[in-house]
Amino acid sequence: MNFIKKINRNKEEYSNANEIANNQRNKNNLSYRKNDNLKILYLKNSKKIITKVKIANSFKKRLIGLMFKKTTKYPLLFEIPQKINIKEKSSIHSFFMRFEIRLVFIDRKNIIYEIADLKPWRYYVPKKPAKYIIEFDKIEFDNFDLKIGDEIEIK
């Protein structure tokens, strides 16, 4: 009889521990979402709003990018750290990607200097270092009015 009581008590403790862990996971996910800010991408000269963009401003967010996602609600803007000033550090991979992306490279003067397409499981190095890189779903990119030479603003 004592053995059965012990098993039941262990089941309760295990169940409580799982509930606490699940609650903690949910809290962490909520706080992550709150910090997952959006900014607005403008054409500087016309002040025309292009789109909202998600910001990838940490190493982890830049590393993960759009990996494993089936679609994206917003383009992803990578803020490249200023101390990185070689073009290879502005490179982009599409490992574990499920869709083709269009990359927009923006220099220190906030001018688009290169636009490239990247299929899943590829690697791309731009012509020069970038201040920002924006990953668009290639299919959705045609909805945005962006071209080489455009000056952009992010607020």
SSE blueprint and pairings:
Blueprint: H1 2-35, E1 38-43, E2 49-56, H2 59-64, E3 76-79, E4 92-93, E5 101-106, E6 112-118, E7 123-124, E8 132-137, H3 138-141, E9 152-154
Parallel strand pairs: 2-3
Antiparallel strand pairs: 1-2, 1-9, 3-8, 4-7, 5-6, 5-8
- Strand runs, count: 9
Unreliable stretches: 25-35
- Reading the helices and strands in chain order gives HEEHEEEEEEHE
> How much of the sequence is in beta strands?
25-35%
Q: Mind summarizing the main beta sheet?
A: 7 strands, mixed
> Averaged pLDDT, please?
76
Give the CATH topology of the largest domain. Answer: Jelly Rolls
- Our measurement of the CA-to-CA distance between the termini, rounded to an integer number of angstroms, reads 67 Å
The CATH homology group name of the largest domain = Protein of unknown function DUF192
Shape: globular
Which CATH architecture of the largest domain?
A: Sandwich
**Helix amount:** 25-40%
The structure class reads alpha+beta
Rg over CA atoms, rounded to whole Å, is: 22 Å
Helix count from the secondary structure assignment? 3
Order the strands across the largest sheet as they lie in space.
6-5-8-3-2-1-9
Q: Tell me the count of domains.
A: 2
Task: Give structural notes.
The protein has two domains: 1-35; 37-154, Protein of unknown function DUF192 (Jelly Rolls, Sandwich), CATH 2.60.120. The strands form two sheets. Strands 6-5-8-3-2-1-9 form a seven-stranded mixed beta sheet. The chain has a two-stranded antiparallel ribbon with strand order 4-7. It has 155 residues and is of the alpha+beta class. β1 and β2 (49-56) form a beta hairpin. It is built from three helices and nine strands; from the N terminus they run αββαββββββαβ.
